[in-house]
Write a structure and sequence with these properties.
This protein folds into three domains: 3-47; 63-225, P-loop containing nucleotide triphosphate hydrolases (Rossmann fold); 228-301, Orthogonal Bundle (Helicase, Ruva Protein, domain 3). 47% of the residues lie in helices and 12% in strands. It has 13 helices and eleven strands. It has a five-stranded parallel sheet. The chain has a two-stranded antiparallel sheet with strand order 1-2. Strands 6-7 form a two-stranded antiparallel sheet. Strand 1 and strand 2 form a beta hairpin. The N and C termini lie far apart (49 Å). 27% of the residues are buried. The model has no long low-confidence stretch (mean pLDDT 88).
């Protein structure tokens, strides 16, 4: 048996052990050792293998740096701020921090701070008492209470109103929330993971983001690279997406080498989300092999 084949089998067995540890709660004491061995075992040069770690596709140097940082901080409880352009996969990183950490058996709840009206965001996060406002017909736990012991992911934290920033800061400082309409506080234990595509440090200088909250959230920063800086990863992502989308649509999806080269040359301003949309469009419109003419006009022209 070749060294490459042995490495493949070794990794497969370790992956199975780790998967079992995640679902059944066994081998917890050995998890750090197993994950370290899995990290250093060389991956066989199998052209059909799609490199995947922490639920993310990629093997470029910038993504290896992200994976290395995830290995270090996933098991801790420190607050993490994920920064990156739209479509780079910030929620995937947040889920990885939860699923590969000590809180994985507890809830993971996410909220997009830009998608909820300011007057409802407090209720969504901290809960409310019946009758505290129009439509509050029953008591309701907010995310912080519902996710007690787990993780709360606050996406687009840069869009949180200043008034809510003050209330969030108190939660982080005191470890307690007060539902809307209540005069009682509830102790909570959650890990905070926040994400943004904005420059929070610059926002603190102009007064649109609280500096003290910024320091509370920014214990560890994970900077996600844009897809245009992830050399080689477009090819991996395309193969993964062709398999996924083809299965969803019930058809065999293939891409010509010429079309793949056009995708690799594109700048991807919308990052992985844009690539996902492009593959879905091409698979939906093309019954056979996807060629250059089947891609979006801008990608065909390269402008």
């Amino acid at each position: 048996m070749t060294q490459s084949r042995l490495a493949d089998e070794f990794r497969a067995r370790l992956e199975a052990l780790l998967a079992d540890a995640k679902t059944a709660g066994v081998l917890e004491d050995l998890r750090p050792v197993l994950e370290e061995v899995l990290r250093i075992v060389p991956v066989a040069a199998d052209p059909s293998a799609i490199p995947r770690r922490f639920g993310m596709i990629g093997d470029s140097p910038p993504m290896r740096q992200v994976f290395a940082l995830l290995e270090k901080v996933a098991a801790s409880d420190v607050a993490v701020l994920i920064q990156g352009e739209t479509g780079t996969g910030k929620e995937l990183v947040a889920k990885a921090l939860h699923e590969y950490g000590s809180r994985k058996k507890k809830p993971f709840l996410a909220e997009n701070c830009a998608a909820v009206p300011a007057d409802l965001l407090e209720s969504e996060l901290f809960g409310h008492k019946r009758g505290s406002f129009t439509g509050a017909v029953v008591d309701r736990d907010g995310h912080f209470v519902a996710a007690d012991g787990g993780t709360v992911f606050l996406d687009e934290i840069g869009d949180m109103p200043l008034a809510m920033q003050s209330k969030l800061l108190r939660v982080l400082q005191e470890g307690e929330v007060r539902p809307v309409g209540s005069n009682k506080v509830i102790k909570v234990d959650v890990r905070i993971v926040a994400a943004t595509n904005k420059d929070l440090k610059a926002m603190t200088k102009v007064g649109t983001f609280r500096e003290d909250l910024y320091f509370r959230l920014n214990v560890i920063t994970i900077q996600l690279p844009p897809l245009r800086e992830r050399k080689g990863d477009v090819r991996h992502l395309v193969r993964y997406l062709l398999q996924k989308v083809g299965k969803e649509m019930g058809r065999d999806a293939e891409l010509s080498e010429e079309a793949l080269q056009l995708l690799e040359r594109w700048r991807w301003p919308g990052n992985v989300r844009e690539l996902d949309n492009e593959i879905r469009r091409a698979v939906a419109l093309t019954p056979g092999v996807i060629g250059p003419k089947d891609l979006s006009p801008a990608i065909q022209k390269g402008v």
